């Protein structure tokens, strides 16, 4: 499987990196991190992306300003895309078709090629514009999967919480995992 992972500039950029770090090495990953995400990551963790990302041979790092990168074309086949976290700015651009960065261009390509896309909006509370944008994208078969906890799981730490969320996103992308305790 080929998977595009985009990390946009919402709070929780570290969750996106944790997601990437847990992806099995048999999945080819194209990772794009926005400038805003890099800034949020530094503010929230005090560390840079290079300090937090595990170096794995299956990850190709692409710059968000490289509009000519491979994932910007429908002729380059990527199976699925996930945006963790998805800022409200990025979500709004997705909903109206603005393609002014590699993240937004890759999304537009996935949509036109009718390929699977999951977005993890990270904001609270949500206003009517946010909700309308999510509804519009949902009607276009984009899976809206915000980082919301399932309280039936055995969550005792931040790591447990993140593993639950990452496991649920892996489930949506059909990536086998044992990251969380399943309902019995």
Describe the structure in your own words.
The protein has helices at residues 13-22, 35-45, 49-52, 88-96, 102-112, 128-139, 158-172, and strands at residues 2-7, 28-33, 59-63, 80-86, 116-121, 143-144. It has 184 residues and is α/β, with parallel strands linked by helices. Strands 3-2-1-4-5-6 form a six-stranded parallel β-sheet. β5, α6 and β6 (143-144) form a beta-alpha-beta unit. The chain is globular, with a radius of gyration of 15 Å.
- Quaternary structure type: single chain
Q: Strand pairing plus helix content: what structural class?
A: alpha/beta
Strand content: 15-25%
The level of helicity is: 25-40%
Instruction: Average the pLDDT over all residues and give the rounded result.
Output: 94
- Globular, elongated, flat, extended or rod-shaped: what is the shape? globular
How many distinct helices? 7
Give the biggest beta sheet. 6 strands, parallel
Kindly report how far apart the N and C termini lie. Answer: 29 Å
Q: Spans with pLDDT under 50 lasting ≥5 residues?
A: none
Rg for CA atoms: 15 Å
Strand order, biggest sheet? Answer: 3-2-1-4-5-6
Q: What string, H for helix and E for strand, traces the elements in order?
A: EHEHHEEHHEHEH
How many strands appear in the DSSP assignment? 6
């Amino acid at each position: 499987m080929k998977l595009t992972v985009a990390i946009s500039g919402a709070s929780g950029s570290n969750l996106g990196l944790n997601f990437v770090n847990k992806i099995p090495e048999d999945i080819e990953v194209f990772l794009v991190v926005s400038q805003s995400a890099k800034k949020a990551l530094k503010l929230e963790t005090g560390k840079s992306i290079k300090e937090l990302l595990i170096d794995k041979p299956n990850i190709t790092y692409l710059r968000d300003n490289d509009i000519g990168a491979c994932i910007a074309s429908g002729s380059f086949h990527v199976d699925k895309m996930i945006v963790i976290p998805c800022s409200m700015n990025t979500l709004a651009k997705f909903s109206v078709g603005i393609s002014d960065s590699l993240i937004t261009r890759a999304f537009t390509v996935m949509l036109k090629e009718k390929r699977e896309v999951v977005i993890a909006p990270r904001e609270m509370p949500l206003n009517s514009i946010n909700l309308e944008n999510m509804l519009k994208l949902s009607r276009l078969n984009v899976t809206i999967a915000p980082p919301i906890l399932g309280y039936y799981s055995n969550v005792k730490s931040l790591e447990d919480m993140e593993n639950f969320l990452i496991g649920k996103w892996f489930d949506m992308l059909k990536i086998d995992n044992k990251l969380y305790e399943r309902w019995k």
